[in-house]
Structure formats: structure tokens, C-alpha cells
From TrEMBL:
Keywords: Glycoprotein, Membrane, Transmembrane, Transmembrane helix. Residues 218-304 form the PA domain. It comes from the Eukaryota. It comes from Ceratopteris richardii (Triangle waterfern). PANTHER family: N-ACETYLATED-ALPHA-LINKED ACIDIC DIPEPTIDASE, VACUOLAR PROTEIN SORTING-ASSOCIATED PROTEIN 70. InterPro entries: PA_dom_sf, PA_domain, Peptidase_M28, Peptidase_M28B. The chain crosses the membrane at residues 64-87. The keyword tRNA-binding does not apply. Residues 397-570 form the Peptidase M28 domain. Gene3D superfamilies: 3.50.30.30, Zn peptidases (3.40.630.10). The lineage of its organism: Eukaryota, Viridiplantae, Streptophyta, Embryophyta, Tracheophyta. This is Glutamate carboxypeptidase 2. CDD domains: PA_GCPII_like.
Length: 590
């Protein structure tokens, strides 16, 4: 049977596995995993056996954030579960239950007041001890940690493995070739910041672009600003030809995968992308991490250049053990065609300071300490060599389940990914720690006799950084079930990057967000709620932005299945959160 259809079922029997490929196909520590799709109503005991239907039952390392942010960090967890509880409160008003609305209010208040900074600090410290890129031993260790924490907090646990195509760097070099015959090999390395405590940087993966193809190119260089289509159009007006050239582009306006795609269509042989101080270092005049939030001159942004989501080998269907997979030729058609490398502002300075040609438009000038930004081409040339290793690699999603007592076949999902390019203190493990803090507080409520009306699924995704792979594969495997039974998906990726609440959602969840933020005190203004300061900061503009494009694990739920979704964080809007995301793609986030 075609794997695109055979892996999905509209009806699930008691014996069918909705999260296949854990116990039998993938042995080791998945042996005791619970299958979320083992039965339609998700009734199961701690060992994963069916229960009869009648028996219902930052520490932020390297001083990335100040200590005051821990209260904000706890606040994220409070808002998330307040959202959970609000969903159930609405259900209670429609369907009277023995718990009653007054008891609901008591439990709600207890949840809000039971925040534990020490719990969140402990989880974040443990999760960010080592770099844990997807597919690594260290990444699997974080999966085990989250699973054990869920179990410790009394949740039924499950894990699901997939074999997916991941990409890693083997060889990287970038040599500047001057007209006089001399040359300079760029370092392509990050310089560890000066910090008081000991952190090992040797294990961090080298800066690279995931899924960039192996290749070698020697050519003149052209500067193309942010690498947008309008930037290439401007070069054409200036009679600057990029065909056969290596283009150098600054991060900031366009997804790196689109930068490479646009460059390919323009005829470029390779792409260099750097972080300009104007965009990521406050112009270079406000200090650098760890003394400020700004990216140091040696900082390099890692990231994927794959423009899709999910495993490139199985577009549209899950990467289970016996799935059909694309051929090498077919998958190559979906991946970037020319090599690319991310470099630091320090390395970019060496290139840009020697670039000739006409002066770039004023709006193309950035924060490098050079007299003028010129577009080239020449007189220098670059020799770029990159070798990647594509590997079929195991990833693991982990789930904690609290079964609903009235509507166990209706699901409210809260998700966050664990994998990180390096240490992941903000992105994603501030969100992971919030997820585990939620699990702890749910345990407190359940000890008081509270149970949700609908089933809660706490989801810890893997391989998000490579293109939302873990969540997308799971959604593809369970799309029919989620389409009819999922109530909402709540996503938290970078839970805390500073103060100031930000929310993006589908319209169905707007009122819910406003309701719950009215019930939570703002950490920076004790006499106001989060809603009060959030509304004031909006200054008449829409408070809630719409989810669209890519960015995080809500993609599969919203764009593939149509599940109402939200994504929230603290960080003074997009400018600050983007800065901290960039730090999390470098060594400077551990």
C-alpha cells in the first residue's frame, strides 16, 4: 500500500498503534513506551495496557537573562496552563460536573499561586549542560530527562521515534584570494566569551547550514544586501551581474532558505550569509554578550536552509520504519542546489573591506567598521569548500498525558521542542523548562482531586531546528485523528527572552488569551495584569498577531490539520525575541 495513505487511519481499534515504531521496531529505552494511538479514547495504564472504558481515571546559563526574568519565566507556564484551565472551564459551564465551578476556581487559584522558581531553574540547568543538536547522544539524553520528569510528576508517558534525514558538516573552508596572489583563510569559528564559570565549547557543532549541499566554488564576490528579490533587481539596475559569482548577504529580512533559493535562481554559485552588527549588535556600540544581549563579532548563526517542514525523505507521510522514501534524485530536487556557509561579522569584515565595485545604496550599509559598503564584483575572489554528511538518523518525541474524565477523546496539546543548535538556553529549553513546570503543577492539582475534562497532551518535540521534523512527522502519522479530536495546540518555543508579552494565534483563541492574561499579575508591574501592560504596549495596534509562514512546531497542527493554535513568549515583541533566537543559534546562549 502507498505509504502516503497506508500509515493513516480514520478509525483506530484497541490494538492499533497511533504512535507506531517505538516498542518493536525501535528497541532500547523505548521498550516501555506507551502508545498514544493504542486506543481511540486514550485509556491506558502506566505500562501502556488498555484500561477498560469504565475505569476512568534558568537557571539561564552564561548570564543570558537576569534573575528577574525567572519570574517572567514562571509567568509563561502560568499563562499556558491558565489557558488550559480556561478551556476546561468553558466546558464545565456547558456540561455540569461534580467538580463544580467553585471547585474549579479554587484549583485555578492554587495553580496560579504554586509557581516554583527552583523547579524551573533546576530543569533549565540540567537541559542546557551540553550542546544537544538533534540526532546526537546528548539530544537523546534530554529526551530521557523529559520522560523521567513526566513520570516523576505522575503523567502517563510515551515516546515515538522516527528515522529521518539530517545533515551535519564534515569540512568547511573559506579562503580570500587577493589580486596580488596572497590569500587569507577565514577562521569560521566562534570565540568563546569570557565568563566566570566553566563551560565546554568543544562539543558544539561547527557553524553550518543544515541541508546545504557539498560543493566547491571559486569566484568573484558580489554583496546583495539582505538577499531579497528586490535587492537583485537593484543590482540589475546598477549593471552588476551575479551570474557565476559567490554572493555575500546579511541576515535580517529573509529566511536563510529563501536567501539561498533566490541566489540560485539568480545564477550564483554559492552563498555566504553573515550577521551584520547593525542588525544583531545594536550597531556595535552597545557592548556584546555576556555584558549585553548583543551578538559578539565572532558569533555565527547556525540554521537550516531546507524550505519545507518534516523529513525531506517523506514529504506528506510519516517516517516510520517501513515507510516509502524518496530516492536520492527525488530528495535532491527538494533541497538546496548550491553550497552556503554562515560566517561571523569578523570574517565578513575581511571580505567586505576589500570588496570593490560601485558604492552600495545607502540603505544597504550596515554596521561593519568599513568606510563604505561596495557591491563588487571583485577584485578579490573567494574559494569556498563545503562537505556535508546526510544521515538517516533517529529522533524521539516524548509525551506526557493526563487523561480527561468526561471527554477523554478530545485533546488539548501543549508543545515545545528540545533540540538545539548548541546549548539552547532560550530557544528552546526555556520553553522545555516551562513545560516541565506545568507538569509539576498539574500533579499538585491532581493530588487535590482535580482532573481535566479533556485529555491533556504535553509534547516534547525533536529535530525542530532542522525544519519542524519531529512534530510534523507525528502530525502526519496522526492527522485523521487530530483533525476530529484536537481542540487546540499551544506552542511555547522561546518562553523567555526578556520582559513584554507577545502572542500569535488563530482567531478562535483570541478571547481565551485575553481572558487568561487578565488573571495573571505582570512581574514588572505588580499593580497590573499581563493584559494591562500588553494592551498598553500595543498602542492601538492589534494585540494578537496571526500565525503564518513557518517558525515553530505549530506548523503541522495549523497548516496540515487546521487545529486552532497559539504561540506565546516574553521578550518585548519580535525585535528582542529575534535577537535571543540568534544568540541561541550560536555558542553564546549556553
Amino acid at each position: 500500500m502507498d505509504a502516503r495513505h497506508g500509515a493513516k487511519h480514520v478509525v483506530f481499534s484497541e490494538s492499533e498503534s497511533l504512535v507506531r515504531g517505538t516498542s518493536e521496531e525501535y528497541p532500547d529505552d523505548s521498550q516501555n513506551a506507551i502508545s498514544l494511538q493504542q486506543r481511540a479514547l486514550l485509556h491506558f495504564d502506566i505500562d501502556g495496557d488498555p484500561i477498560p472504558k469504565s475505569s476512568k481515571t534558568g537557571f539561564l546559563r552564561c548570564s543570558l537573562l537576569s534573575s528577574c526574568c525567572f519570574f517572567v519565566f514562571i509567568l509563561v507556564a502560568t499563562i499556558l496552563v491558565a489557558s488550559y484551565l480556561a478551556v476546561f472551564k468553558r466546558t464545565a459551564l456547558c456540561f455540569p460536573h461534580e467538580q463544580g465551578e467553585s471547585n474549579f476556581s479554587d484549583h485555578h487559584q492554587h495553580f496560579v499561586q504554586s509557581a516554583s522558581t527552583s523547579s524551573a531553574v533546576h530543569h533549565l540547568k540540567e537541559l542546557t549542560k551540553l550542546p544537544h543538536v538533534a540526532g546526537s547522544v546528548e539530544d537523546m539524553a534530554t529526551a530521557a530527562y523529559v520522560k523521567q520528569a513526566f513520570e516523576r510528576y505522575g503523567l502517563k508517558t510515551s515516546s515515538t521515534d522516527y528515522e529521518v534525514l539530517l545533515s551535519y558538516p564534515l569540512e568547511r573552508s573559506l579562503v580570500v584570494l587577493y589580486p596580488n596572489g596572497s590569500h587569507v583563510s577565514l577562521s569560521l569559528q566562534e570565540k568563546p566569551p569570557n565568563m566566570d564559570h566553566n563551560i565546554t565549547f568543544a562539543e558544539a557543532i561547527a557553524p553550518f547550514h543544515a541541508y546545504a549541499p557539498s560543493g566547491n566554488a571559486t569566484a568573484e564576490v558580489v554583496y546583495v544586501n539582505y538577499g531579497r528579490q528586490e535587492d537583485y533587481a537593484k543590482l540589475e539596475e546598477m549593471n552588476v551581474n551575479v551570474n557565476g559569482k559567490i554572493v555575500i548577504v546579511r541576515y535580517g529580512k529573509v529566511f536563510r532558505g529563501d536567501i539561498v533559493s533566490i541566489a540560485t535562481k539568480a545564477g550564483a554559485r554559492a552563498v555566504i550569509i553573515y550577521s551584520d552588527p547593525q542588525d544583531f549588535a545594536g550597531g556595535g556600540n552597545s557592548g556584546f554578550f555576556p555584558n549585553s544581549e548583543w551578538l559578539p563579532p565572532s558569533g555565527v548563526q547556525r540554521g537550516t536552509v531546507f524550505r519545507g517542514s518534516g523529513d525531506p525523505l517523506t514529504p506528506g507521510w510519516p517516517s516510520t520504519p517501513n515507510s516509502e522514501r524518496l530516492s536520492n534524485r527525488e530528495v535532491a530536487a527538494l533541497l538546496p542546489k548550491i553550497p552556503s556557509l554562515p560566517i561571523s561579522a569578523s570574517d565578513a569584515f575581511i571580505i567586505m573591506s576589500s570588496l570593490g565595485g560601485v558604492v552600495a545604496p545607502r540603505e544597504w550599509h550596515g554596521g561593519l567598521e568599513i568606510p563604505e559598503y561596495t557591491v563588487g564584483a571583485g577584485p578579490l575572489r573567494l574559494n569556498l569548500t563545503y562537505t556535508e554528511a546526510q544521515k538517516l538518523t533517529r529522533i524521539r518525541n516524548v509525551f506526557g498525558v493526563v487523561e480527561g474524565i468526561d471527554e477523554p477523546d478530545r485533546y488539548v496539546l501543549l508543545g515545545n521542542h528540545r533540540d538545539a543548535w548548541t546549548y539552547g538556553a532560550v530557544d528552546p529549553n526555556s520553553g522545555t523548562a516551562a513545560l516541565l513546570e506545568i507538569a509539576r503543577r498539574l500533579e499538585l492539582l491532581r493530588k487535590e482531586g482535580w482532573n481535566p475534562r479533556r485529555t491533556l497532551l504535553l509534547c516534547s518535540w525533536d529535530a525542530e531546528e532542522f525544519g519542524m521534523i519531529g512534530s510534523t512527522e507525528w502530525v502526519e502519522q496522526n492527522s485523521d485523528l487530530l483533525a476530529v479530536r484536537a481542540i487546540a495546540y499551544l506552542n511555547v518555543d522561546c518562553a523567555v527572552a526578556g520582559s513584554g508579552f507577545f502572542a500569535a494565534a488563530t482567531p478562535q483563541l483570541d478571547m481565551l488569551l485575553k481572558e487568561v492574561t487578565r488573571e495573571v499579575q505582570d512581574p514588572d508591574a505588580p499593580d497590573k495584569s499581563v493584559y494591562d501592560t500588553w494592551a498598553a504596549a500595543a498602542r492601538g495596534q492589534p494585540m494578537i498577531t496571526r500565525l503564518g509562514g513557518g517558525g515553530s512546531d505549530f506548523i503541522g497542527f495549523l497548516q496540515h490539520v487546521g487545529v486552532p493554535s497559539m504561540d506565546i513568549y516574553f521578550g518585548e515583541g519580535k525585535s528582542q525575541i529575534i535577537q535571543f533566537i540568534i544568540l541561541c543559534m550560536t555558542l553564546f546562549n549556553g
